[in-house]
Write a structure and sequence with these properties.
With 281 residues, this protein is mainly β. Helix content is 10%, strand content 40%. The protein has 2 domains: 159 residues, no CATH class; 100 residues, 2-Layer Sandwich (TolA/TonB C-terminal domain), CATH 3.30.2420.10. The strands form 6 sheets. Strands 1, 2, 3, 6, 7, 11, 12 and 13 form an 8-stranded mixed sheet that branches. Strand 6 and strand 7 form a beta hairpin. The longest helix is centred in the C-terminal third of the chain and has 12 residues.
């Protein structure tokens, strides 16, 4: 199920970014002493309920009071932790644009009814497409200095849902094999987009139980490699063993890549990594 709610804010341009201006006092404040995000993150499925955004409204500007209208959509990946707080908010196709900065500031203060598994709150992998309508306006500070800000002209719409698995997730490969996938907002390896290159890898560890049972084989993990070469949102798309699946994810999180490139510019892509567990005499 896709969940849609609305909110908005004010963002500044240039070296500094202006803080959001709320309509009334409905925007939630960041809780003090918030605990770190859980280490185990679930995907929404039959036994895991999706998070639900708690509605918030922000101040918007009338279109006749500013100029240079700018509209667009930005897709972000995130984790909604067991306390309903968004973590690890990352553009899936980063470009440093005004719309991207606005989308990050829109989602940052969000608060959710957290996802649940067996009626217990859990951390959940999630994604959001933020639709933004805004324009540029002049703002004067107390000293009389004028700056340009980008302001919302309508409440931005947030459409939530899981990141879909890569198209070829069911294929298997050799140890450490990497395959390209696709997802809305991500580039696809091929043509003008070169694949990411592993610069640093990590050997997955066996669990005592898997070693005792003699379990071995390949676990397939889909992961977004962002424009900085960091792996984000690793997810199991072909399971081997629950314990080994978690060990595979732990290993993938330690990987570092030379990012994918589109005409020399780093871009985010989704790939599938085959993690090979082998027992040797």
């Amino acid at each position: 199920m896709r969940i849609v709610r609305v909110l908005g804010l004010l963002i500044g341009l240039g070296a500094s970014v202006a803080a959001g201006q709320q309509a009334g006092s409905s925007a939630p404040a960041s809780p003090a002493g918030t605990p770190p995000a859980p280490t185990k993150v679930f995907d929404v499925g039959p036994d895991v309920k999706a998070p639900e955004l708690l509605p918030t409204e922000w101040e918007v500007m009338a279109t006749d009071t500013c100029k240079g209208e700018k509209d667009g959509k930005v897709t972000l990946s995130l984790v909604v932790d067991a306390g309903g707080v968004p973590r690890d908010i990352t553009p899936v196709h980063p470009d440093g644009s005004t719309l991207e900065k606005m989308a990050l500031r829109v989602v940052g203060p969000d608060r959710f009814k957290p996802g649940a598994r067996e009626d217990q709150p859990v951390a959940v992998n999630w994604a959001v497409e933020v639709s933004i309508h805004g324009c540029f306006a002049s703002k004067e500070d107390g000293a009389g200095a004028t700056s340009t800000v980008f302001r919302l002209t309508a409440q931005p719409v947030q459409t939530f849902g899981p990141l879909p698995p890569p198209e070829n997730a069911g294929q298997s490969g050799g140890a450490g094999a990497v395959e390209s996938g696709s997802s809305p907002g991500l580039d696809r390896v091929g043509g003008k987009v070169t694949p990411p290159v592993v610069l640093k890898s990590a050997e997955p560890e066996f669990t005592d139980e898997a070693r005792f049972k003699g379990i071995q084989g390949i676990c397939m993990i889909s992961v977004i490699v962002n424009a900085e070469g960091k792996p984000l949102n690793p997810r199991v798309v072909k399971s081997l063993d629950p314990g080994l699946d978690l060990k595979a994810i732990e290993a993938i999180k330690k990987f570092r890549f030379k990012p994918a490139l589109r005409e020399g510019v780093p871009v985010s892509v989704m790939i599938t990594v085959a993690v090979n567990f082998r027992l040797y005499p």
